[in-house]
Automatic annotation (TrEMBL):
Domain Methyltransferase small: 170-268
Transmembrane segments: none
Name by which UniProt lists this protein: peptide chain release factor N(5)-glutamine methyltransferase
InterPro entries linked to this entry: DNA_methylase_N6_adenine_CS, HemK-like, N5-glutamine_MTase, PrmC_N, SAM-dependent_MTases_sf, Small_mtfrase_dom
Key words, A-Z: Methyltransferase, S-adenosyl-L-methionine, Transferase
Gene (UniProt): LOC107220680
Enzyme's top EC category: transferase
One Pfam match: MTS
EC number of the protein: 2.1.1.297
Length: 362
């Protein structure tokens, strides 16, 4: 029989009071046990859920990391093999951390958590650290430097779905310009499958090959690959779309017509990019954010393309900077040859003018 020894250790450096814990271990595990406890005592590392959240949220806050509590909660649930589900208006935890504050992590879990927390200390976004994020009712795989979908963009999808429901058409041909991870197009297609009121066939384009590949992976994970056509293509400032490879030689963007065009184009002025948070500047593809001198370069290009590619009474939806809706309305009135009518401006969660809707005149 394996001999047992008693190891008594004081955990006063971790707890508010000095408590002695008795641990029963086998002889062959004694060395590892001593190493484990001595490391924890020397470093003062926490090992329970409550201690970990408090310790790392304080460290993150002291280092100026945004959303310190949320950051460690997401990392911790990921390490525990659980999930903290997040979307714009709901937080659902498959494992509620508050229900098990004294649960201890294993040494392997502690090691993994420390590694991921160091990534967060380096300002890596949580979405890249855990490798996924929720957008509406789907979960997307995320890898740097592909643009991370923001919660407010869910509103853009909601607006488009609502307008499609009002029109009551049975089928929609949709173009998503600048698909990134596929958040918008996949959310649209997934929702149409769920409610079964109309079918959506979507073409998703992005000039980043990495983004196209990630969209393809997400479509396969969600089982929506048959509803999505992904094209590595670039929108030019003159309002044309050019394919960048031969993966879809049958797509003629000069002749293709769409019922709906939707886009979250780059709209941040170039000179303001360096004012962005380190998480964005260091890790995300700034080309997905750079809107040119006034932030309108790609928005104008979308308008020009939509004027040719939308069917009569087709709809264009865009996410823009709050200063842009007024200019977009002026632009469509000035250039009547575009045959675009400015329909509406929608607010984001902060009551900013964030989304615009335009229609194609007959």
């Amino acid at each position: 029989m394996m001999a047992l020894k008693m190891l008594r250790v004081c955990r006063g450096s971790i707890l508010s009071g000095c408590k002695t814990c008795t641990v029963r271990i086998g002889r062959e595990d004694l060395a590892n046990g001593l190493k484990y406890f001595s490391t924890r005592i020397n470093e003062g590392e926490p090992d329970t859920i409550c201690e970990i959240v408090k310790y790392w949220s304080n460290r993150f806050e002291n280092e100026g990391i945004s959303e310190p509590v949320e950051s460690i909660e997401h990392i911790l649930t990921h390490v525990l093999g659980s999930k903290k589900r997040y979307s714009s208006n709901t937080v659902i935890q498959t494992m509620d951390l508050a229900d098990a504050p004294e649960q201890r992590l294993s040494l392997d879990q502690i090691t993994k958590l420390q590694s991921l927390c160091q990534c967060r200390m380096s300002r890596m976004p949580v979405q890249y650290i855990i490798g996924e994020w929720d957008f509406r009712d789907i979960t997307l795989k995320l890898v740097p430097p592909v643009f991370i979908p923001r919660p407010e963009t869910e509103i853009l999808v909601d607006i488009a779905l609502r307008r499609m429901a009002e029109a009551k058409n049975s089928h929609y041909i949709v173009l998503d310009i600048g698909c990134g991870s596929g958040a918008i197009s996949l959310a649209l297609v997934h929702s149409s499958n769920q409610i079964a009121t109309s079918q959506i066939q979507c073409t998703s384009v992005d000039k980043s090959l990495y983004a196209c590949e990630l969209t393809r992976q997400n479509a396969e994970i969600l089982g929506l690959q048959d509803k999505l056509r992904i094209v590595n293509a670039a929108l030019r400032e003159n309002g044309t779309i050019k394919s960048l490879n031969d993966s879809h030689p049958g797509v003629d963007f000069d002749k293709q017509q769409f019922d709906i065009i939707i886009s979250n184009p780059p709209y941040i002025p170039t000179e303001k990019l360096m004012e962005l948070a380190p998480e964005i500047k260091i890790y995300e593809d700034l080309r997905a954010l750079d809107g040119g001198k006034d932030g309108l370069s790609l928005i104008k290009a979308v308008l020009r393309y939509a004027s040719k590619a939308l069917i009569p009474r087709g709809l264009l939806f865009m996410e823009v900077d709050p200063t842009h809706p007024e200019y977009i309305e002026f632009f469509t009135k000035k250039y009547t040859d575009l045959k675009l009518k400015f329909e509406h401006t929608y607010k984001d969660y902060c009551n900013n003018d964030r989304f615009v809707e335009l229609s194609k005149l007959d």
